[in-house]
Amino acid sequence: xxxxxxxxxxxxxxxxxxxxxxxxxxxxxxxxxxxxxxxxxxxxxxxxxxxxxxxxxxxxxxxxxxxxxxxxxxxxxxxxxxxxxxxxxxxxxxxxxxxxxxxxxxxxxxxxxxxxxxxxxxxxxxxxxxxxxxxxxxxxxxxxxxxxxxxxxxxxxxxxxxxxxxxxxxxxxxxxxxxxxxxxxxxxxxxxxxxxxxxxxxxxxxxxxxxxxxxxxxxxxxxxxxxxxxxxxxxxxxxxxxxxxxxxxxxxxxxxxxxxxxxxxxxxxxxxxxxxxxxxxxxxxxxxxxxxxxxxxxxxxxxxxxxxxxxxxxxxxxxxxxxxxxxxxxxxxxxxxxxxxxxxxxxxxxxxxxxxxxxxxxxxxxxxxxxxxxxxxxxxxxxxxxxxxxxxxxxxxxxxxxxxxxxxxxxxxxxxxxxxxxxxxxxxxxxxxxxxxxxxxxxxxxxxxxxxxxxxxxxxxxxxxxxxxxxxxxxxxxxxxxxxxxxxxxxxxxxxxxxxxxxxxxxxxxxxxxxxxxxxxxxxxxxxxxxxxxxxxxxxxxxxxxxxxxxxxxxxxxxxxxxxxxxxxxxxxxxxxxxxxxxxxxxxxxxxxxxxxxxxxxxxxxxxxxxxxxxxxxxxxxxxxxxxxxxxxxxxxxxxxxxxxxxxxxxxxxxxxxxxxxxxxxxxxxxx
Length: 672
What we know:
The protein has about 675 residues and is of the alpha/beta class.
């Protein structure tokens, strides 16, 4: 019901659209002014009669009678929005800032009168009973200022029921934040912009993480997280994780129990920063990789953020540049060795078992030798795994299985060459050998003979046995030593070439062309991270194999468009597959959590690989997508989780929740 334009009070109430912050600030001010007015005048003083409900009621404003209007400071909050007008920045009072509110203007010496809205029956004013005032305030501050998207119906399970993703449906990322994100000049700027959003508005950040995973993944994880870890101490950021240092010895359990929301934690990613991606010892900067990995549990598997905890074990660093850096925030000492180091690690693990006995523990980016020792010692004591060894192996195996859908020849007929023999490479080799043994009945020693490794000194073989680290020994075959990759490719004729060496450019044109001489469609997997460490690019692999290679990389590469032979049309676009562990470890981890698994055996990673390899459509495979796009990561993870939950329970590693009826994969798919 419109007011007369001649009414000065109504004219004052008609204001330009103000910013989100101004509107929020003004609502808080209006509520406080209304309460002060009531306190000064009393319930019946001052001549302010409030409107309750949406009907026509008489209200008096300083002796003036206005029909059908809402009076008082709170009524001004419900004025119609005026789009496209410049904001008014007169008010300098920042007290009471919250998001999502309109900004009223106070008329000097008198309350406001504004138009009555259709839903005014929902508005309760200042001298109503306290419960009504609180309910009215909740109405103001719970209204989402952005359109409500279609919610994801899948429920996130957790203690206390978890949080329904429908609750996030009204939490949208504002245009202002989008502009900041897209206006960032570098990848690191985007990383910092996302961290800033996380700090300011965790729910909006989570919505962004869930709805636009494919877009933000390169900035919260590889390749950008590597640069962030290198500069972690120099960046103006506040960690979201927990540091446990050597100085905490004897009270690690107390340190863990002091963590906020400690009773909610169900998944932990821990690193000691010794071997971050392909960048080496970054000390306390390793926290960045734990933070990045843990967010993927939310983005890919739907684990609520308050159930995830990134941890960095700060035991010092052996990198001189960090020890000499005045801004380095970690312990300024060299890393301990032997008993001192492993006793500290054992205290941490035992403290974790005492604190959260059913919690998942993911080891991340430990040194090569340390990683194998820790996994071997604790894998049967608690629910844990090493993503660098087992997760990388699983995604690699999934890539091979998916790639074989495009070429002739069985899995058991392939010969595989790894360029690099660190924890990632040997872990992949062991899982492939286990797959050959489990699925094709090939004896394990014979299966290993179909897998070759090269390290910095050349082909891993028996003549070098005395010089080899323990984890390489099973793959030291009775072969002639060769120091050069090209020589090995030509002599032993592998059909699958996998790079885990962090040696950029090591897959040369000659090597790639030699692979095409061995088979019609070779599998080329440069898996080293970050992008700067990849053995070759997608464009190089495509060009030097005449488009015949089946490609997957560890870091993302842009798609490649090949013109049509006749020059007509738009050509064909090929999308390089990214063999990202994010397809595997969140699903494995959350399946273990849901079933309260006692341990995570290697068979679980075989099942995860087999399930993932079958999820890509034939059309996607022809365009180079060995795995479903990251835009479908939640659906992909749900299928893998359902398969693994059934496997955990069927094999006796986990238990079925009581509310689940049959425990069949279809029921699990609905459950997760």
